[in-house]
Design brief:
heterodimer; A: about 130 residues; mainly alpha; Arc Repressor Mutant, subunit A; 3-stranded antiparallel beta sheet; 3 strands; disordered N terminus; B: about 160 residues; alpha+beta; Alpha-D-Glucose-1,6-Bisphosphate, Chain A, domain 4; 8-stranded antiparallel beta sheet; 8 strands; about 25% helix
């Protein structure tokens, strides 16, 4: 079993949390924005046409899914996306892309086998 | 290369790969509906897939396994969510144990296949959209059919060890 951070799905509720967390465009944008840099909840709140409380709720959902971490700094709450988890996801997507490129290559070969090649056709005496 | 576009979102864990196939839509649809054809492309030659149950009706389960060079088997399934022949197939795909029962972890992902005619009508645009529930599921998918890579990596390690000996 591969384990790292909290991206690992140990149970279906965790998968549900991840799906739910990523189903919202604002939450996805918060994650992208919080990649590699800390942002206070109040500065994030200024980016979206929603209330501070709504952004705070989005951050809580993301935190529950293990996509961001939150720490207190004075009166501010600072949010960072889990860069390690997302980089890892990016690498895995690269490998999955290759897997599908290989499959599509095999599909092409399979479809090409439906027809004799042009040279074979030219050599056919009929 | 017939792959025309690839979109990856590491936050949403999605991969969309678009390709143009040199065959009409009806022919391309058979790639998915005929298990014997699926077996010729789903797994790499070193890790061929065998489809045990294959029924593309909504609610039906397609089950398959992949056999590695040392005889090891990895089991997977698709639960058919929606099907619109010959244009669209949506499944929830996951891993199974050796009796074909879905495993709890990692949970299933979503795969949507869309086939449409190219502008000239002679070919097919095939779009595969995958949404993965977690990185763990992506890891496991990659592990199915990748023993060759592992063996190559191991032989490289052995070569390095031999050099330093």
């Amino acid at each position: 079993m591969v384990t790292y951070n909290r991206m690992v799905v140990g149970s279906d509720p965790q998968a549900d949390r991840l799906f739910h967390a990523l189903a919202d465009a604002t939450r996805r944008d918060i994650v992208r924005h919080a990649l590699g840099a800390e942002h206070s909840v109040s500065s994030l709140a200024r980016r979206y046409p929603v209330s501070f409380a709504a952004v705070q709720k989005h951050v809580a959902v993301l935190e529950g899914a293990g996509l961001v971490t939150k720490r207190r700094h004075g009166r501010e709450q600072l949010v960072t996306a889990d860069v390690h988890a997302i980089r890892r996801a990016a690498r895995l997507l690269d490998e999955l892309e290759q897997l599908w490129r290989d499959r599509i290559g095999r599909i092409e070969d399979l479809l090409a086998a439906d027809h004799p090649t042009e040279t074979q056709r030219a050599g056919d005496p009929r | 290369m017939t792959v025309t576009s690839v979109e990856k979102d590491p936050v949403a864990l999605t991969l969309t790969i678009t390709s143009e196939l040199a065959a009409p839509v009806d022919r391309a649809w058979q790639l998915w509906t005929d298990p014997r054809q699926l077996e010729r492309w789903w797994g790499p030659p070193t890790y061929p897939a065998t489809f045990v149950d294959h029924d593309l009706s909504p609610g039906a389960r397609v089950s398959y396994f992949m056999t590695g060079p040392s005889g090891d088997k990895a089991y997977g399934y698709w639960d058919v969510v929606a099907v619109d022949p010959p244009h669209r197939l949506e499944v929830r795909d996951g891993f199974a144990d050796d009796s074909g029962e879905p495993t709890d972890t990692p949970g299933p992902g979503v795969m949507i296949v869309t086939l449409t005619e190219t502008a000239d009508g002679a070919g097919t645009v095939m779009v595969i959209e995958s949404q993965f529930p977690s990185a763990a599921e992506m890891e496991q998918l990659l592990a199915m059919g990748q023993e060759e890579g592992m063996v190559a990596a191991l032989s490289q390690i052995e070569a390095i060890l031999a050099d330093t000996a």
